[in-house]
Amino acid sequence: MSNRDVCDVGVAGMAGTSTKGKVYAGVIVALVALASVIALSIDSRFLYMLVYVWFGVIYGLFLQYGRFCMASAVRDLFAVGVPRMAVGVMIAVALYSLTAAAVTMAGFSTFHAHPLGWHIIIGGAIFGFGIIFTGGCASSSLYKSGEGNVGSMLVLVSISFSQAIFVASDWFSGLVPESWTQSALEKGMPEELTITSTWFDQFMAGYIWDLQGGTVAEMMGREGTFFGIFVGNALLGAILPTFAILVFLYIVAYRKGYMRRAKIQNPAFGDHMRGMWSMFTSSKNTALAGLGIGIFAGLQMWTTGALRDYYGIFNFGEMLEDMGYYTGISIQGTVFDPGYWYITTQEAQWGGWVLNKLGVDNMSNIFFGLENGLPNPLLNAPGMMSIGIILGAAMLANINREFKWKLPSMETAIFAIVGGTLMGIGARVGMGCNVGAFFAAVTNGDLTGWIFLFGMALGGYLGVKAFTWWMEWRASRSNDEFAL
Amino acid sequence: MAMKFEKSGDGAYMLNVTGYTCPHPQMYTKKALQKIESGSVLTLVFDNPSSGESIISMCESEGNELFERSDSGGTFTWKIRKG
Questions:
Q1: Where are the transmembrane segments (chain B) (predicted)?
Q2: CB atoms A147 and B49 under 8 Å
Q3: How far apart are CA A392 and CA A52, in angstroms?
Q4: How far is CA A303 from CA A108, A299, A306, A445, A474, in A?
Q5: pLDDT in tens, A77-116
Q6: Can you give the pTM of this predicted structure?
Q7: B3 forms bridges with which residues in the sheet?
Q8: Subunit contact B22:A71, Cβ cutoff 8 A
């Protein structure tokens, strides 16, 4: 019997299901349904926000099912030589790229390519270094919070406040190159914005806005066509790079163990094909989760697009103002409203909203004041999606008897706060996290996502080195022969 | 709760990493398996479900046998024989 037979092929349902857990899961669904009914009875237009909530619940189920974690993908490869999650994420990228292409082809896509610049690799490396210490990426910190992991909840708090402070404070303004300041001034921004006072504002207006970007289809001049979208974006932009990475992972991290288990001394081509297939199937739940998320992210884009048409709006901010909620809306009348799967920006808004209520003036910057706003968390549609993710993950974790309130040790708590801060800063410099800057980018034919992944892998490698050094140093200080 | 690794009998060891999230459980497990003799049994106690996935793969790739598992309220106890 193999290790996987013993573990019931692992992943979802590692410990079987529980009746009590199913009751808890039912209670969670009932509470979300009740809150939805209350919201609709206040104003039927809250349907727009409830779409985010319920899609969030679905994403949470998939994330917990597949243990979808980019931190694990990078870290397990470098720290313990296990490629399973990296393989799962890569297969998920290939599958998701096809659903993203279908959504683009149908005209529902709300995706915009990211600008290309050095910030991506630097932001990715800071983010990648941070995720080694937090034990989870932006998306897995949400699903792990749903498993009762208080350390992951601390990571969310840390990501929220670090971003909110980073985008609005003038602590680093002395590091701004003169060229950014000049370029930012030339943009002629509204007087309400203090465009040259913070590092992040000048980074945005004086650097990011001057950069160009585009999907593979756009670079080929074939945007909007089947060839550009399916061949350019999906095949060239996502599937072929994915395949190359999978072959690399097989060679460096899977082949040797597989041949030993299969007792093959001189492998032929067919043996390697079977080895590759074995590697794929060992990651199938993560890949299935990626496919599911891809399909539902497409459906969410379509649903949100249809509702925008129905209500005659471009952005949820207009609807909030129509409903009489004027606070926290940007000077353009907008709030953050991506229309699909996103993680870190709404977390920045949570932290920013709390600081704002504590008296901090943080609405005169580009991030909150011009673009994303600072709505009350109860009126923050993508924020409610993140709550939905936590609740969806909590449902499945309860059903599978994997829910447990887990208080962090002091070391884990400190790592969560420091690592979460690095993740927050990295996400803002890199213009997104493992979802917005990598997953959503590469699956839509935006090659900057692969640069973010490279940066994240580099940061992750250095993070593993630092983490291993820390463990060795701690063990060396102990006289216990069983110190690890 | 701090990590605990100890010899629990002849050729038997116990590693308790409850309260630890990734990457601690899998890294401690790897180090513990490196430290014990071939044929010995490591009883691993942990409560971070996703670490279990990494540990299964690690055992497979390094030729260690996971031969028993049980769970209680989200805490998992696995027995691994070093290959």
A1: none
A2: yes
A3: 13
A4: 9, 6, 5, 22, 52
A5: 998 888 988 998 999 899 889 989 998 998 888 888 999 9
A6: 0.92
A7: none
A8: yes
What is d(CA A289, CA A275) in angstroms, rounded to the nearest whole number?
22
Q: Please name the residues between 152 and 171 in chain A that touch chain B, using a CB distance below 8 Å.
A: 152
Q: Which residue of B has its CA nearest to A79?
A: B27
Residue boundaries of the structural domains of chain B: 4-82
ipTM of the predicted structure?
0.84
Residues in chain B: 83
Per residue of chain B (83 residues), give pLDDT as tens. Answer: 678 999 999 999 999 998 888 888 999 999 999 999 999 999 999 998 889 988 998 898 888 999 999 988 889 999 999 98
User: 3-32 in A: which are within 8 Å (CB) of B?
Assistant: 3-4, 6-7, 10-11, 14-16
A368 in Cβ contact with A346 (< 8 Å): no
| Dist. CA B19–CA A304, nearest whole Å | 40
* pLDDT range class, residue A246, cuts 50, 70, 90: very high
DSSP letter for A11, please.
S
Q: Which CATH number is B4-82 given?
A: 3.30.110.40
